[in-house]
Amino acid sequence: MPRKNRRQSEPRRPTSGAQDPSLIDGPDGPVRVRRIPGASAEKIYRCPGCDLEIQPGTPHVVAWADDGDGDDRRHWHTGCWNARGRRQPGRWR
């Protein structure tokens, strides 16, 4: 009789929508960060890192102050977000 190699069931991850926000330290205090997959990106946003548009369908990052109500959310290109530490001080928009 052949052996059955089955994977143990893993908890399912949500396949649509943004991932849960995580908390990181920013220059002005804690910042919530959420990664948006391309399938969920439906609008055009302006990236504060490069001042270019983020087109629909482009995976990107949304960041906002932890103590805020979310009105200060900023949508960043993933590369711009990853390079934010190499930017000049005081250049967060």
TrEMBL record:
It comes from the Bacteria. Residues 1-31 are annotated as: Disordered. This is ATP/GTP-binding protein. It comes from Glycomyces luteolus.
